[in-house]
Amino acid sequence: MINSNRRQFIKFFGRTGAMAVGISALPGCVLNTDEKTANQIGKLPFTPIDPIDSDNLVLPSGFNYHVIAKQGDAITDTQTFGDHNDYTAFYPLDDSGNDGLLWVNHENVSSLLVSGYQGSRSGVEKTLEQVNLEMEAVGGSIIRVRKNSQGKWEMIKNDPYNRRIHGLTPIPFNWDEPILGKTEAIGTLANCAGGITPWGSVLTCEENYHNFWGERNFETGESSGSPKRWDKYYDHPPEHYGWVVEVDFKTGEASKLVALGRCAHEAAPVHQEKNGICVVYTGDDKENECLYKFIGNEPNSLKKGTLYVANTEKGQWISMDINEQPALKENFKDQTEVLIRLREAAKLVGGTPLDRPEDIEFDPITGNVFMTLTNNKGKGNYHGSILKIIEKDGNKLAMEFTTETFIVGGEEMGFSCPDNIAFDKKGNLWVCCDIGGGELNKPPYEKFKNNGLYFIPMSGPMAGMVFQVGSAPVAVELTGLTFSPDFKTLFLSVQHPGETSRSLDELTSHWPDGGDSLPRSSVVAIHGEALDKLMG
Ligand code: FEO
Ligand code: CA
Ligand code: CA
Questions:
Q1: N or C: which end of the chain has fewer CB within 10 A?
Q2: Could you tell me the distance, in angstroms and rounded to a whole number, from the CA of residue 484 to the centre of ligand 1?
Q3: Integer Cα distance of 146 and 245 in angstroms
């Protein structure tokens, strides 16, 4: 049903959309009457839903879902699926695309649900066994997934490809110099979004590493220590985290890509030139941090190259090579230190502070680069936007670019805090939002109710309109959108249901199993005739 709220925000689109989107590019945004809006929605193969605050994953009629894997599921006889699943990436094992490997990031761990630790107020110290359980719940999973004879995706338990990479896995640095005297780190964690290389590996981004191993104060040399109290049993420096990590889908071989710098990397989409040289875009998801672009030196390799930071005011990519920047030479002893202290270095050469750069995707029709800027509350930006980056002459090797705000979040647009995005087969955009679990259903976010999944047509009379196509369970962030090769399935991460729970006696969610069950972060497969028609 199209209720008054929906009519209201679509109607508002006529007023705000021109500013946000650019009227010439998107003729649909001039619609401003209920009748026209209703006519356009009538052409969708589904009826958009309104904001909902129930403890369910709600989809419109014509869409169905089922859970493929949830936190704690056995993927082998000795390993379990991790917590807080985020980015997903699919690697097909045959031409049908119905059999493949699914990489899944595990961004965080709930002590309450995974180790049973009740928090420091309990007056009890976390045990080594609890710390190990938590360290094993972060990182990533590789699971074999296949469509069964009923056409339903399922995880193949004990498949030889199934493996975990987690907080205790030794991972070498793909760099010629040691990092704080070590050639390998122990573990990967805070794995948020990522990218896929053309040679069969996934890039997984270590985002909020400071929540695990703290951060160094480079003035005093002191580390802030582990907020999770892991440093009672292990001694790992903050500098070993905050990297983009490359993992081979089939072998699980992993390495940390130092050349891409160290920050709260959100995503790392990869573009490859005809000569094999790769370009990787990556944003630093923190208020007033920057967007970066890495251009490799050698085909099919991300070991060496040049890292650039974006000055969005001048429309320039600025080299972060210490040999090209006197300001870097004055402040850092070598390129390794520049890369470790990337945020400081970026500001010294003129990187533009942005409103929390999150996911980045390439528009498959135009090649333009789309990046979510989720919000910047310190600057009064509560609802975020999506930025379009147009490289000069459409060349991803270019040193100049222009930007346009593609769309802004807000009550008028019906969504807030855009985070993860994906383009579908038709070049239409799917957007997941991430209003913080504790902020949902409260001002200024109460109108959006639970976090949602949104569909934005990119061409035709509905171009630029926002249609809600999913509503998350309580306190969930929807994320990790990946389409199957035939676009008949959308894999989606449903992360941290009930993260607002104070204790096991006061759970705010029981998704996905319902009843009195514990909530579990899960990967779902969304499918159905409405999705088929959208891709048809
Ligand atoms: Fe892990 Fe910025 O989201
Ligand atoms: Ca995110
Ligand atoms: Ca994405």
A1: N
A2: 23
A3: 26
Residue 475 Rama label (left phi>0; alpha psi -120 to 50; beta): left
Look at ligand 1, atom 1, and give the residue with the nearest C-alpha: 192
The CA 165 to ligand 1 mean position distance, Å, reads 19
Centroid of ligand 1 to alpha carbon of 310 (angstroms): 20
3-state secondary structure of 357: strand
> Ligand 1, closest atom to CA 420?
3
Residue 9 has pLDDT above 50, yes or no: no
Atom nearest to 192 CA in ligand 1: 1
Counting ligands in written order, the one closest to the CA of 357 is: 1
User: Is pLDDT of 528 > 70?
Assistant: yes
In this structure, what token pair is assigned to residue 401? 């670019």
Q: Which atom of ligand 1 is nearest to the CA of 285?
A: 2
In 139-243 the beta strands, taken as DSSP E runs, fall at: 139-147, 153-155, 163-165, 170-172, 184-186, 191-196, 201-206
Rounded Cα–Cα distance for residues 443 and 420 (Å) = 23
C-beta separation of 11 from 466 below 8 A:
no
Task: Give the residues surrounding ligand 1 with Cβ less than 6 Å away.
Answer: 107, 192, 207, 266, 285, 358, 419
CA 251 to chain CA mean position, Å: 24
| Dist. CA 362–CA 164, nearest whole Å | 29
* CA 417 to centroid of ligand 2, rounded, Å: 10
Q: What angle do CA 446, 452, 455 make, to 5 degrees?
A: 130
- Measured from the alpha carbon of residue 283, the closest ligand is 1
End-to-end Cα separation, the chain, in angstroms: 24
Q: Tell me the angle at which helices 4-21 and 34-42 cross, rounded to the nearest 10 degrees.
A: 90
State pLDDT tens for residues 178-236: 999 999 999 999 999 999 999 999 999 999 999 999 999 999 999 999 999 999 999 99
Stretch 252-277: mean pLDDT, rounded? 98
Both tokens of 9, joined, read 């925000």
Q: How far is CA 123 from CA 77, 126, 358, 373, in A?
A: 35, 10, 37, 39
The hierarchical CATH code for the domain 10-535 is 2.120.10.30
pLDDT digits (tens, 9 = 90+) for 462-518: 999 999 999 999 999 999 999 999 999 999 999 999 999 999 999 999 999 999 999
Ligand in nearest proximity to the CA of 478:
2
Q: What is the pLDDT of residues 332-375, one digit of tens each?
A: 999 999 999 999 999 999 999 999 999 999 999 999 999 999 99
Work out which ligand 1 atom sits closest to the CA atom of 190.
Answer: 1
